[in-house]
TrEMBL record:
Protein name: Long-chain-fatty-acid--CoA ligase
Residue stretches making up the AMP-dependent synthetase/ligase domain: 23-120
Gene3D superfamilies given in the database record: 3.30.300.30, N-terminal domain of ligase-like (3.40.50.12780)
Pfam family for this entry, one: AMP-binding
Amino acid sequence: MLSSALLDFVEHLEHRDLGSVAALALRRVVGSGDSVPLQLQSRFLEMFGWPVLEGCGITEIGGYYAAQPLDPLDREGKAGAMGRPTKGTQVRLVEDGKDVPVGSIGEVLLKTPSLPLGYWEDPEATKELFQDGWLRTGDLARFDLDGFLWFVARRKLIIVRRGSNLAPAAVERWLLEHPKVKAVVVVGVPDSAEGEVPVAWVLPGDEAPTAMELEEHATKGLASYEQPVSRLTLLVSVKQNRASMISHEKSQFINFPIVYLV
């Protein structure tokens, strides 16, 4: 279940006090598409008494390449992790062509029995992503000492600000910790002085946060180069497309209320 759909589902049950009814029928939910925010995981856990399982997959292999164990004891303390590599899947984390040590960030490379030979009638993409029997996913992740994979970012979404790489997902996770923030999407936009800067679109909760509240929250948990600049736009819907935000350069959001950050 996508995080946005899971948010709608949880809020629907909360507003109608149906959590106890749903808990009787529902046995398992697997998050997909993006990591499930910790705040949303907590709300789900409180309602159902068991956590959302997480995993990560890719179309090219026809399924998940990592998933959390079903046994709660095996995944204790691993909320937010993608899980361990699935059966039959080989996973490497690589940077500049070399495998990175445990705890370091690298691009996820995959080898599975279901790996295709390439893309139909697209030799350029095949050459770029299928190399020596491995598939380059474009996902950046790290392994912990227990063999769990932790998603960091998608390489193509990494924002380079004054030479420093920052992951939009890391900024989003911190902003989501603010009690008045319901959902958030962070994208990089061109900047003549800094190369790129992070800009955040925020969906407020029942009470909208002020610019000062968000600014103070950002300074407490984010490095200076990670802090969103120029403005935070308050959305009226969480169902916004990240690619549209980037390609249309925010033009379709000018009618929303804007909170400026000084």
